[in-house]
């Protein structure tokens, strides 16, 4: 069982999976008579059909026991999915590149610093929300519409990468 290396979340490192939603290192322009910085279009909501809608939800999640064998990943083939932490707490992200099925050796882990959100592109394999605190809240922007928008892939027991974080 391979223990995942937990990488710091950065735009560059996360680029194969989506965008990082953060002010650090992001362009902005002044609005509201110079009283506000607009960090414009940090990420793009992807949908699949004209009747799709981008929706905004809040997820209140509880932490999972760690170390955590990564038994499964999921993907949303019809739309992107963004998670923005609302309490400023770090959280964990586990992803694999889009494709027919995630290969265990392609699974990567990142640590968001609490001031960063992520936007998974359509079809990117990811583990459901992984919070570090006992409980955490996230603003979630994703797609609502017809059709099944959640595929799951389960790793064979011996192939499960291990997520180990204090
Ligand atoms: N199922 C659901 O809405 N949440 C997952 O997609 C997730 O990524 O947490
Ligand atoms: Ni998801």
Automatic annotation (TrEMBL):
Keywords assigned by UniProt, alphabetized: Lyase, Purine metabolism
UniProt pathway annotation: Nitrogen metabolism; (S)-allantoin degradation
Cofactor(s) required for function per UniProt: Ni(2+)
Protein role: Catalyzes the catabolism of the allantoin degradation intermediate (S)-ureidoglycolate, generating urea and glyoxylate. Involved in the utilization of allantoin as nitrogen source.
The protein's assembly and partners: Homodimer.
GO molecular function terms attached to this record: ureidoglycolate lyase activity
Originating organism: Azotobacter bryophylli
Family from the record: Belongs to the ureidoglycolate lyase family.
Name of the protein described by the UniProt record: Ureidoglycolate lyase
Enzyme Commission code(s) on record: 4.3.2.3
Catalytic activity: (S)-ureidoglycolate = urea + glyoxylate
């Amino acid at each position: 069982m391979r223990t995942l290396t937990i990488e710091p979340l950065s735009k560059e490192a996360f680029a194969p999976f989506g965008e990082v939603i953060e002010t650090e290192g992001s362009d902005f322009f002044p609005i509201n008579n110079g009283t506000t910085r607009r960090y414009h279009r940090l990420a793009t909501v992807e949908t699949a059909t004209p009747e799709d809608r981008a929706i905004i939800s809040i997820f209140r999640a509880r932490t999972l026991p760690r170390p955590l064998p990564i038994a499964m990943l999921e993907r949303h083939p019809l739309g992107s999915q963004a998670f923005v932490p609302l309490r400023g707490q770090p959280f964990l992200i586990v992803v694999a590149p889009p494709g027919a099925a995630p290969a265990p050796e392609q699974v990567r882990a990142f640590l968001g610093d609490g001031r960063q959100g992520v936007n998974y592109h359509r079809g990117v394999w990811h583990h459901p929300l992984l919070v570090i605190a006992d409980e955490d809240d996230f603003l979630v922007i994703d797609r609502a519409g017809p059709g099944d928008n959640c595929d799951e892939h389960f790793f064979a027991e011996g192939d499960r990468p291990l997520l180990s974080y204090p």
